[in-house]
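thought: fold this chain, then report.
action: predict
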Amino acid sequence: MDAEATPPPGIGEGPAKVISVSLPEGTVHALRSKVGPRGVSAMVAAAIEQHLRNQAMDEYLADYQEEFGEFTIEERRAADEVWARAEEAEAAWRRRAAG
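observation:
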């Protein structure tokens, strides 16, 4: 890519594009019952974006450990604690947002 070319948008960026996907009927029913017919695209986009970010993180962590070695028990515990606090904060935020 030359210096003047615009890089492609990142995950979750850029204009929406219409595509067609096939999902099991039960999944579609559960999805529509949760978000309504107008929220399907947003929910599918959010789920795919989260999945892609998780895959990118997995790849990064694998590369990191390949270069620097496996995470220690202490590092894993510290990460677990940070993750637990983040999940608690998100749950509190969702409760406040729900009213």
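thought: worth noting. The first helix runs from residue 25 to 35.
final: tokens above.
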